[in-house]
Design goal:
alpha/beta, seven-stranded mixed beta sheet
């Protein structure tokens, strides 16, 4: 089911907060919702108009019909939603902050509609998660197959172990926050979404990205450092890798101030 363009803002719970002259778009990742940005939002809204929203698979989205696994079997449908939402809100030349799967969605959107963004901030992003030939994605094919089997056969235990894989276990409140988001996601959506994400291969996309990029890398069990430097090498726009001293995949939850300091330095604002 396709979304009526006029209702995208309401359907995706989109909100613009803050009063800066520039716009920043925050796009959450797999199994999450916009609340995962809450710790850094008060700082960013002092300097930017900040757009936050929920992807159609999110448990925060009220209409379960918005997410069609067939339609969202590649990143293209997410890209189209992002472009349509920004068109509806008349936003261009924005800073795009994409976490995890949203990093590649932002890259594709920047190619499809160059005037949308003036910079990409890619947080824990990856063009491919599965190792192949001389590319290290972080997972071998068997590990991804096992994960997909676990989602199908032992969902309750999988959600807990996945949250602990992604979020620093020394911060139990943040683990619980992400786990709550994950558990609120419609269980029927999780397996097809995981297939879309973990079977994706967007390596050829990187060479078409021509705007400046900042790749934010943590001590991540899902996206190894080699992925960040691979992306830096392939992206055509001026690209830097910035290390945030944080364990696991969610610096905005477990190291918000360190994360903000990197954003402030890259974008030139004061915290």
């Amino acid at each position: 089911m396709s979304m009526p363009q006029t209702n995208l803002q309401a359907a995706m719970n989109a909100r613009i907060l803050g009063s800066g002259s520039e716009t920043m778009v925050l796009a959450h990742g797999f199994g999450g919702d916009q609340s995962l940005w809450d710790k850094i939002l008060p700082y960013l809204t002092k300097h930017y108009q900040v757009l936050v929203f929920d992807w159609p698979f999110s448990g925060a989205v009220k209409d379960p019909n918005l997410y069609d696994p067939l339609k969202y079997s590649s990143f293209d449908a997410f890209v189209n939603d992002l472009i349509a939402l920004m068109d509806e809100l008349h936003l261009t030349s924005s800073v795009f902050v994409g976490h995890s799967m949203s990093g590649m969605i932002g890259c594709i959107a920047s190619i499809k509609k160059p005037q949308l963004f003036n910079r990409l901030i890619l947080v824990g992003a990856s063009p491919r998660y599965i190792n192949i030939d001389d590319y290290e994605g972080g997972f071998d094919a068997a590990a991804v197959a096992d994960m997909l089997t676990s989602i199908e056969s032992d969902y309750e235990n999988w959600t807990t172990s996945f949250a602990k894989l992604l979020v620093d276990n020394n911060d139990p409140h943040s683990v619980e926050h992400y786990l709550k988001c994950l558990k609120s996601t419609n269980q029927e959506f999780v397996l097809p979404l995981a297939k879309t994400v973990f079977h994706s291969d967007e390596r050829e996309t990187l060479e078409k990205v021509t705007i400046p990029c900042t790749i934010i890398q943590t001590n991540d069990l899902v996206v190894p450092d080699s992925v960040a430097y691979y992306m830096q090498k392939k992206i055509k726009g001026e690209t830097t890798v910035e290390i945030v001293k944080a364990d696991r995949h969610y610096p905005q939850l477990t190291a918000p101030l360190d994360f903000l300091h990197v954003l402030a330095r890259v974008l030139g604002f004061q915290i």
